[in-house]
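Two folds, back to back.
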Amino acid sequence: MTTESLTTNYFRAHLENMVALALAAQKHGQTVAPSEMVRSIESTLLELIHTGFPLERILEKSDLVLHAEGPAVRDAAPQLTAFNWLSSKTNQSLRKLAGEMFNLQEKDEKRLRKAIDLRLTGMAPGSLYLGFALAPPTQDIIPASDEPVFLQLKEVFRSLPELTDAIDDEEVTPLAAEIVPDAAERDASLTALYNLAPTGKVGIHTLDISSPGRTGGTLSQRERTVLHTALKRPDLISRKRGIFTGEVREIDLDRQRLHLRETNSGRILRCVLPMLDRGQAKAVLGEFARVSGEYEPDRNGVPRLMLVEDLEPILFAEQTKLTGWPDV
């Protein structure tokens, strides 16, 4: 039974009970004023109309549903600063995650970013519920051959609530690797959860997240702290050591990440650099570099996520001589 039918059936059941009571009273010769019958269920029906049905629509139409709680959203009219924080933070986090996924899949990130159409599917009271969905791109923006990329992106958004199950009291557990096997995509998704986790500064203390057909989870300052620590040095599955060279295509200085496109194959390696500073980032962005350290490969042996111990810019003349990638 869907959420929609549960809400509708609950509404209908109250109306049927009201009619049944009136008929029973009439059968026994009792007169019940219609106003009395309505008054007995009025508050329940109004609650369903104001909260139940709007929430039902959000759950049905959304890829991601957020439920914020805290002093700023406790009333029927939430504070605008809290609403703006939640909507803008979600927009920024999902767009950033989308761009990283396009890049990791070796797609034309700049072109595909323009086709991202995030929709607010609705809002409902009860603290504050907001629903978000990725609208299908139109073929005048992208060709039909790129449509599967956006279907995969919807799946990435919908997997975020399930990934919160891997956030323990002190660490991100190995369950994260079971939910998102690809190390680079897992790291990008955990980064998105960190960006969504409330700081408590705008009056939002917890954020419940859910999606259709998935288990939901909660983000708070505790989860934010755990993610902050875990993202500084992610746990790698099947650790290997290597030296790789390529072009630095993207840098996230706040999270100290960069994407390296290998010189010959064009494959993307997501790199974690705890020592990355603004000057170094400016020097290597768009240039060729050599990275060395421990990495996690995918099931085919392709390096996906590296804990970089050394980052060295290389001369353009060297790029044809250095590859460093294993044959897979």
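---
second:
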Amino acid sequence: MSYRPFLLICAVLLISTGSFSSETKFKDFTTNLVLPVNVTGVEKIHLLFVSPDRFKNHQSPEEFYKALSVKKSALIEYIPKEENITHWSKIITVDAYIDLGMDSETMLRRHIENIQNNTLKHQVIAKKIETNPEYKKVSFAIQYQLNPNSSEVLFMHYFSGPYDCVGVQMTQKYDHWLSASDTEKEAKKIESFLSKYMQLNSTYQFNKSSRNKDS
């Protein structure tokens, strides 16, 4: 069975069975995403993300899933409803790399290198790598400056299994460079905010695995 249609089938099944219904924080949403982290074994692990109700998505979920099915990688961005993609105060980005063998640590290194090479200055606030039997998780927070009159604080979580890597990150703008202690406080606020709209979900499948590279 091809893995690409499996991704879409999986999303439909998880949404239709009410994966969010047991969590109060998921009761009000306009957009939700279901993305594989590790679906190779009996335990199927997915990242669930719900759009905050005061945010709007720049790309549609349909466009996002279509890009995944064709290119195996895609992103979708969310900004406050009263703002636009050119002028925003905060932005959430969900991106996915499906069936590419991408590792979450590799993604983290790419983000760090990009920030180092394209900012006036930066300050790493937190970096954590957790390795679990079924997946790897990286968490990262950084402040950086693109121009002298403002700064941005970025917090991210990335998860990866043997084939797939998915992540959620949020960036918030400030009108000045923050102290290390203030940046840490702001990064924790961002992490707390994101935690209300994302979670890992496990389901179990005891029949033949849906991913079969030889069929």
